[in-house]
Amino acid sequence: MWKKIIIHHTASPTEVLRQGKWVKVSREIIDEWHKKRGFGQIGYHFLVLKDGTVEAGRPINMVGAHCAVSRRNYIGLGIALVGNFQESRVPYIQLEATAQLTSKLINLFKMNGLQDIELHREVLGAKTLCPGKLFPKEDFLRIINKPVKLSFLKILTRTSEV
Predict the structure, then answer these.
(1) Which letter does DSSP use for residue 69 in this model?
(2) What's the predicted TM-score (pTM) here?
(3) What residues have CB less than 8 Å from 70, skipping those under 6 apart?
(4) Is-cis flag, bond preceding 147, omega within 30?
(5) Which residue ranges of the chain lie beneath pLDDT 70?
(6) Could you please report the per-residue DSSP string of 99-126?
(7) 125 CB contacts (<8 Å, ≥6 apart)?
(8) 72's torsion region: left (phi>0), alpha (psi -120 to 50) or beta?
(9) Given this model, what pLDDT does residue 158 score?
(10) Which whole-number Å values give the CA distances from 84 to 91, 149, 157, in the listed order?
């Protein structure tokens, strides 16, 4: 079913003020924002927080709502990093967690490797800068092949419907 992995940023702050307190932008907050945009629920399959925490988003067996061009919602899993990488750099722990998740998904769905990873802006027909000019694609691809940590595997299998 899945042939591609599409990398996004949320183009948002990493924390928002809720009821007088600063809280991390999480799956619940993105879900709320996406519902307001008419998506029904969060459009991404996975969300990677600033601290490297991976949260399951849209069920993995459901078509995405993250990249409408070139059929990417139908053939591509959407992974979004929380933050705005037009304005700030990706924290290494967040980049590493995204690379580990991507590697796991490539293996799980028997994809062809790095050639099946696309930044949102690279998708034919996409008119966006996502995941931002400061997203370090070369560094991301370099760390993709690092061994996946056991604790990360536990988080991934517990929070997703893989």
Answers:
(1) G
(2) 0.89
(3) 123, 124, 125, 126
(4) no
(5) 146-162
(6) HHHHHHHHHHTT--SGGGEEEGGGSTT-
(7) 69, 70
(8) alpha
(9) 43
(10) 11, 26, 27
